C-alpha cells in the first residue's frame, strides 16, 4: 500500500505540473488572440482615417497612420514597457523593474517565461491604439515627422506612465485613491484625447475650415462608407482590447487589473450594452452613421471603467448618455475654433472622462482588495484630473515648441494642393469615381445618359 | 502514512477545484471569441449592405443596418433571452426560466456565474445576425421605424422562439421529432428568410425595378467590391457563429446543442468544404462574384444542419447544390415580382430550408441521446414547415398591418430622390472622387504635375 | 484507509482523463481560431487584389481570387493532405500515411479524433494562402482556367510537398540538414514566389506595361486605400497563420513544427518587431503606403524562419532590411521585363529567401532535437535552393506548356477591353469610377473628354 501511495503521489505531482503548464499555455493563447484582434483595430483605424480625409489627403493620412504603429511598437520595446514597470508609485523607479529593460532575459524568447512576451505584445498594441487616437484628429495639415515624435511620446511614454499610475495593481492612484478604471477609459482614452486637444490648440484648424466671419465649413470625409466599416472593425478589435484588460489566473477566477475578482461574462454583458446604447444615443442626436458608429465607441468607453460591475441596463444608459453628449462636445469644440477632423477629443477624451466619472457617480463604495480604498467619486475625480493633465500638458507643450520652431505644420500651399501630391508618390484613385448628375434618374438610361458632376 | 494520504487528498481536492475553474474560464474565453468574431459578421453586413445599395441610398442602408444591431441587443437582454429559456416545450413557460428575466442575479456581473453573460452575448449576436439578414433585402424603400420594429420582432422574439423549439436540448421539435439542426440552418437562416419573404410581399418592389410590361431592370449595387469583401468578412465571422453552435463541456467531449457528442474538427471539415462547394456552385451558375460569395454562404448554410455528421465531400456536394440552386430561386422570386435587393430569401431562406432537408435526406437514422427520436426525413420536414411558418407569418402579418397603416414604406418621391438626401445629414461620397489630369502622363512627372480635373 | 486510497486513486484517474480531454479540446479550439483568422487573410487578399487591378479588371481579379480558394480547399482534402503525410523523406511514401487518404476514418467526423480535422483545416488554409500569393501577380491577363490549374498545383501539391520536406518533424531537409523554418518563410512564401516567377516568365507583361523603347509605364492600382486596408487584414490573419506554426502539447511547453521547444510569447515579440521593421524599411525606401504595407508583410516573412529564436530588435532589423530590399527586387524584376502586378515575387519570393537565409546567417549552431543537425548556413542554403527550385520548376514548366498550347493568356483585345466586360456579368462600380472609352487614350483629355461606357 505504501507503494500505491507513492505511485499516486507521483501521479498527483504530474497532474499538478501538467495543470500548471496547461494554464500557462492557455493564458498565453488568450492574450495572443487579444493581440491579433487589436491588429483589427488598426485595420479599422486605417480605413477610418483614410475615409475621413478629403481625397487629396487620403494616402498621406494612411501613411501617417501606419508609421504611428510602426514607430510605437519598437519604442515601446525599448522604453515603454519599462516605464510601466518602473513608475507605479509616481516618479521613483520600482524595484525589480529592470526585468523590463530591453536587454533583460525576459525581453525575448525564453523557454522559462511564457508571459512577458505576450503581455508586452498586448500592451504594445494598447500603445499603438493610443497613438492612433491622436492620428485621426490632426490629418490634412500636420507635418509627418512632427506627428511621429508626438505619437512616440504619447504611445510609448505618456499613456504608459498613466497606466503605471492608474491601471496597475500598485499604481498610486489606486493604492491611495481607489481609482477604478478597468477598461482603461481614463488610462487610454482620456489621456489620448487630452493629448490630442493639446496638439490641436497649437496646430490650428485646416485651411478653409473657418471663414473670415467665423462661420464654419464642413470639410467632408471623402468616403463615409469606408469610415463606418472601419469603425466596426475597430469594435471587433475592442474585444481584443478589453480581453487584454482582464487577468487570466490559472485555475482561479479572473481578476481585473487591480486584483479584484471579475468575470469575462460581465465584460460581455456591458460591452455589448454600452456599445448599443452609444449607437442609439448617437442616432438620436445626429442621424449620421459616422457619428452613430463613433458614439458606439463612446458607449463602450463610457462603460469601460466599470465593465466588471455595471448592471447591464445601466451600462446601456451610461453608453447612451455618452453617445448623446459626445457630438455636443464636438460641436462645442468646433465652435471654439478647434478643428478635430474625426472628433477624437469628443469620442476618446470626453468619452473617457465620462467613463471615469460614471464609475464614481454610480459605483461609489465598491470595495477594494489588499486594504486599498474603495471606489469613490473623489478618487475618480482625482484620477480624471491627473490623467487628463498627464495627457494634455505634454501634448500641448511639445506641439507648442514644434509650432515655435515652425515644424508642426505643412506649408500652406502644400495643404491647399493636398498632402498626397507632395508626400506620396502614388495616387489613391488614379481612375477616379464620378458622381452622377441627379438629373439622370434611375429609370431613363443610367450610366450612358449620366453626366459626371464636379464635386464642388 | 495517514498524514501523507491526507496531504494527497488535499492536493487532489485542490486539483479538482483548479481543473473545474480552468475549464470554466476556458469555456468563457471560447464564447468570448465567438462573440467577437460575430461582430465581424456585422462589419461584413455593413459593407455588404451599403455596397449593394445604389449610391443615393448608401448611408440610409448603413444607418438601418446599425440600428437593427443597436435595438436587437438590448431587447434581447430584456426579453429575448427569457423567451429562449421559457418556451422549449411550445407556449408554456418552463420552470426555472425566471433566471433569464432581466432582473435576475444571473443577468449581470456575478462572481459565481461565469456562463450566463457569455452565453447571452453569443445568443444576442445570433439575434443581431438574424435581424441583419432581413435588413439587406428591404433596402432603398422601407421606412426606418417600420424596419426597426420588424427587426426587434425577428431578432428578439421570433427566431429565438424557433431556437427554443428546435435548437435547445429540450426543444419540442427535437424531443418529439428528432429535429437536428446543429448549425442553425433552420433556426436562424430559414426563419430569417421566411420572415423577410413575408415583409417583401407587403413592401413591394423598388421604384423602377419592374417596367409596365413586366420586364425587369437591374438596380445595381453601387460597389460590388465592397459587397464581396463584406461577404468574406461575414465568412470570417461565421467561425464565431458556428463555434457558438457547439457546447464546451469541461474535461469532456464537445456536444452539439442537443447533447449529442460532436467535435470542432468535424465543424472545421464541413464548414470549409460546404463553403467552397457553394462558391463553385455559384460560379458555375452565375460567373458573378457577388453571387459566388453569396453562394459560399449558402454552402455553409446548406451544410449547417449536419455539420457534426457529414463526410466532408458530401458537405461539399450539398454546398455546391445549394450554390447552384440559390440563384435560380432568386430569379424565380424576381420574376414573380418579389424584389429582394440582396437575395436574402434565396440565400438564407432557401439555403436554410435545403440544409434542414439535406439532413433528412442524407442522414436519416442518426441516433439521438436521452431517448429522443433519431433523425428522420419526416422530422426534418416538420421542422422545416414549423420554422418556415414561424418566420413567415409574423413577418407577413406585421408588415401587412404597417402597410395598411401607411407606415411601411417611404414616400415615392423620397425613394426616387434617394433616402440619403432625406434621412442622413451627410453625403456618402461628397467629392465623387476626381481623377488627375491624364496630361501628366505616367512617365513625365506624376502627381506634382497633375491637376485635378473637374469631371464635367 | 485502503478504501480512502482507492477513492483517491479513482479521483486521480478521473483527473487524468479530464485533464487529457481538456487539453485536447483547448488544442482544437486554438487551431479553430487559427483557421478562422486565416479566412481574414482571404478577405484581405480579395480587397488587395481587386484594389490593385485597374477598374476594368476588378471583378475578374476578385473572381479569380475566390476560385483559387474554392478549388484549393477540396483538392487539398482529396490529395494535398496525403502528400504532406506521405513524402517527408523525399519521394517514397511514408508508412502510415494512408490515414490521410480521403476515405480514411480520420478524414471526417470522428468522435475519437479531435485533431485531424482541425489540423487539416489549418493546413488547407495555408494551402489557400499559398495559392493566393500567386493570384495577385498575374492579374489582368491570365486566363481563368489556366490560373485555376496552376493554383491547384501550387496549393494542393507543390507547396505541401515542400512542407513535407522542410516543415515536418521528419522532413529530410530538417533530418539531414537541420533546416529551420518555423514560420514557413521558405515552405510557403519562397515556394509561392518562385512558382509565381516561373509563371510570369511565360505569361509576359500586361499590354501597355512596356513601350517599344523599353521604357516602363505604371499600370496603377485603381484603389490604393482598398489595397492597404486589405493588406492590414492580411496581417490580422497572419496571427492565425503563425499560430498554426506552433504545436500545442497538452500540459507541456509548446514546440515548433520540428519538435524544438518554443513559446508563443517569442512569436508575439518577433512578429510585431519584424512587421514594424518592415513598414519602416518600406517607408524609407518608397514613401508609398502600398509598399509600406507590403514591406510590413516582408518584415514578418523575413523574421519567420527564426520566430522562435530572434532577439526582438534583431527581428526588427532583419524585417527592416527585408523591407528596404524588397522594393529594389521588385524594380530589378520590372526592369527585366517581368511584370508582377503586386510585387508578389519580391514580397514573398525574395522575402521568404531572405528569411531562410537570415536564419543561417544569424542563428547558426542553434541546437536541434532527436539528434538532428543544428542550424547552419549550409543547411539553410540547401533549403533555399531546394524549395526555390521546387516552386520555380513546376510553375515555369506548366505555364510553358500552357503558353505553347495557347491557353495561358486571354486574347489581346479582351485584355485591352478589360476582363470584366467579358468574364463577369456585372459591373464593379455601375454609378462611378467610370471606365474610359478605349478611344479616350490616356493622353488626349481624360475624364473631360471621356464618355462613360456602359459595361454591357
From TrEMBL, chains A, B, C:
Ammonium transporter AmtB-like domain: residues covered: 30-424
Swiss-Prot/TrEMBL keywords: Ammonia transport, Membrane, Transmembrane, Transmembrane helix, Transport
A Pfam family of this chain: Ammonium_transp
Family label: Belongs to the ammonia transporter channel (TC 1.A.11.2) family.
Taxonomic source organism: Lutibaculum baratangense AMV1
GO molecular function: ammonium channel activity
Keyword match Mitochondrion: no
UniProt cross-references to PANTHER family, sorted A to Z: AMMONIUM TRANSPORTER (PTHR11730:SF6)
Primary location recorded for the protein, binned into one broad class: membrane
One CC-aspect GO term: membrane
Chain segments annotated as transmembrane: 29-46, 66-84, 117-139, 146-167, 182-203, 224-250, 262-283, 290-307, 313-333, 345-366, 381-402
Biological process according to GO: ammonium homeostasis
Compartments in which it is found: Membrane
Entry protein name: Ammonium transporter
Membrane topology: Multi-pass membrane protein
Keyword Coiled coil tagged: no
